[in-house]
Amino acid sequence: ADMGAKLLCLFLASALLAYYIYTPIPEDLEEPWKVMFITATFRAMGHLAEVADQLGLMHYMETLMLITAAEYVAPTSDENVTVMDTEFSNVAVRLYLPRKASDGLRRAVVYFHGGGWSLGHAGMKSYDHLTRWTSNRLNAVVVSVNYRLAPKYHFPVQFEDVYSVTKFFLQSSILSQYGVDPDRVCVAGDSAGGNLAAAVAQQLLKDPEVKTKLKAQALLYPALQTLDLNLPSYRENENKPVLPRLLMVKFWSEYFTSDSSLREAMASNKHVPVESSHLFQFVNWSNLLPEELKKDHVYTSPTYGSSELAEKYPGFLDPRAAPLLASDAQLRGLPLTYVLTCEHDVLRDDGVMYAGRLQAAGVPITHDHAKDAFHGVMMFVLGPAKLAVGYRLLNRYIEWLNENL
Q1: pLDDT category, 6, cuts 50, 70, 90?
Q2: Can you tell me the mean pLDDT for 278-284?
Q3: Statement to judge: residues 13 and 110 lie in one domain
């Protein structure tokens, strides 16, 4: 009987897996079976999270957090890098210190992981690999920040955590303690981490207490604006791998509140009050996107929402949460910038618009657009799901840092 039960389970699991795995995916993606498998895994977790949430067993994000937990690795040093968990300014960080001798002061990268401000950890295998590799390849000190997460904490906690770590690290006494060159420090991050990196770089410009200037910022498929969640990239990639539109809406709204009214308003793109209409110029894709990304999309002016939501949750109109909302004057002093965008990504147009606005503001910028990639692709560089394109983009990012930092 035991055997029969096992077979039945196996059969059901296979049927379910087949249903999930065979999802249509964009034609130009390499290694389609791997992509299907990755997509299936994420969809299954999403459905599980949905059910657990509906039944009141677990908050949606707590279920997804199981992926983070399963991927966790303890801080482990190797022959090239010493790795340790510690705290900077009362915020948990994982520190990567190169072991090989340095003929002078070292470079440094302060890294913020992705995960929609709700998930992720510096100690996840994929992040540990990325930051360890950065440290080793660049002979650089890497500080990977474990900022506090939603749903327990909302904006501005995540931002304040990464900001206070960066500010703490940029003190001359701390830089010299770790042998870091004050002229060669960079902030970087992917997805929600790219959002935090962009926000930190902007905020540092206005902070009279910080004497050390950043040399660079590297933003990997960042989320940069909350106003228009119906850009061409949101429309075209509504159901693409890893980050479907409604999940991004969940992440955005959860960053500010667990109140579902904000999520519902964002889902229908009716959350911005008419008093904030002047901000739309900063995210107006009909002016800010190149022709090839506009395709045959038609720009419609915004449908305004209630002032009440914006009064309750002003964070979604704050440039510290949505760096694209900074004025042109506020972008002018930003450091050397790297932006990576992926074609099959709801966040594609955020990055493209920011790159365009930075260039117009005279900021030296490298914008790489990966036509054959989807959101989060650099997370898939280990194990059986290792994607060649993820590896290629990871290499490209490290090369850019090596040349520019």
Answers
A1: confident
A2: 97
A3: no
